[in-house]
Backbone:
């Protein structure tokens, strides 16, 4: 089954995978603590605005206002440029639900040939939220167990068992998940010690 890009998030853990038929020449790399999807050096040139973006960022809630909420550091995962405004709103002290909803609603689904949904999640030590905006719906939910949402086929959040307990394990598990056209994946864990991330580029 081809489900396109997908996120899996639960309290303390999450990840993201790029699956692509049209643009497989991509990888994830780390830059100043942010994980970024970008074309590989041998990728054909394209003007597609949706193939390069930050897919994992970390943020301290309220840090931008010097009025931190007391919550632990959060991780934001997602399939496009909306990861940045979600992170920014969290830094301003927005609750995770509101940060997801406002950013997804503002940017809406991708204006490509498939009306590709935007998907995202916010992972805290003991909380997690998942969201998607499609042509026909905006969905944002707090989840108590690992939950998957994908751009195609499984575009309604659903429980999805995640066996891994480490960032490395999540990245590998998502990359190897039984969905077609895996390209690269990222994993993240959040606990009292902070955020750990990992990358699987299938190399």
Residues:
């Amino acid at each position: 089954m081809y489900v396109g890009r997908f996120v899996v998030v639960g309290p303390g853990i999450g990840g993201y995978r790029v699956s692509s038929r049209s643009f497989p020449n991509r990888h994830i790399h780390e830059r100043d603590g942010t994980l970024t999807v970008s074309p590989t050096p041998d990728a054909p040139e394209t003007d597609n605005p949706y193939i390069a973006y930050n897919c994992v960022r970390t943020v301290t809630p309220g840090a931008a206002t010097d009025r931190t909420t007391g919550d632990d550091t959060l991780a934001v995962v997602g399939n496009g440029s909306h990861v940045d405004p979600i992170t920014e709103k969290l830094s301003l002290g927005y609750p995770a639900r509101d940060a997801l909803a406002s950013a997804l609603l503002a940017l809406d689904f991708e204006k490509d040939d498939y009306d590709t949904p935007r998907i995202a999640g916010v992972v805290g030590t003991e909380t997690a939220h998942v969201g998607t905006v499609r042509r026909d719906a905006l969905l944002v939910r707090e989840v108590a167990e690992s939950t998957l949402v994908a751009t195609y086929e499984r575009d309604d959040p659903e429980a999805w068992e995640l066996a891994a307990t480490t960032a490395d394990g999540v990245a590998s598990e998502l990359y190897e998940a039984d969905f077609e056209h895996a390209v690269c994946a990222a994993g993240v864990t959040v606990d009292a010690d902070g955020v750990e991330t990992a990358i699987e580029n299938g190399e």
About this structure: The chain has a mean pLDDT of 95. DSSP finds three helices and 13 strands in the chain.
